[in-house]
Amino acid sequence: MRTSRAVLLGAALLAGVGAAHLALNHRYQRQRTTLTLEDMNQRLAGDAHPEWYADHPLLDGLDRDTRARLLHIDRSISLTAAKYRIGQIPDGELDFILCVLAIEPAAQTYWQRLGRRLVDEARAGDSASRRLGEGLVRAFGEPPVEQHAA
Questions:
Q1: Burial level of 136, CB count in 10 A (0-12/13-18/19+)?
Q2: Residue 75 located in a structural domain
């Protein structure tokens, strides 16, 4: 009777360890996938190919230097969001990073043009997206209602 309880307890313990291992493995794989996709996005949106954004309506009327700065801010926010979503940036650090980004004059221009869309998408997303949207609003302020046509 004691032996069967010990075997049963051991089997339950092994099953629990196996389940925890699978959960952690799944989380790790999701993090790697997120970072890989973000890396691909960063490379595709590189300054080496500004012609890809030449006809983007949100960039109308801006000189090449301003466009490059706006794309840099966009990539920085995108990378920050990806790292936040996988847990590499804690909540407290998120606000600090976004506030540092918001200091840039180009970031304010970016926010005026894209802020409303970013916040609306974040509010419609999951809890991590909503927290990210709230952090953006704390750092940049509430975005303007009128945006350029996308």
A1: buried
A2: yes
Q: Cα separation of 33 and 27, whole Å?
A: 10
Look at the pTM and tell me if it is higher than 0.70: no
Of 41 and 98, the one with more pLDDT: 98
| CB-based contact 72:66 (threshold 8 Å) | no
pLDDT tens digits along 42-82: 665 555 555 555 566 666 777 778 877 888 888 888 888 88
Decide if 66 is inside a domain: yes
pLDDT of residue 149: 46
Rounded to whole angstroms, the Cα distance separating 31 from 23 reads 12
Cβ neighbours of 108 (radius 10 Å): 15
User: Within a domain: residue 147?
Assistant: no
The answer to the question of residue 101 being in a domain is yes
**First and final C-alpha spacing in the chain:** 71
The domain total for the chain is 1
Q: What is the pLDDT of residue 97?
A: 92
Distance (Å, rounded) from C-alpha 117 to C-alpha 143? 9
Domain that holds residue 78: 45-140
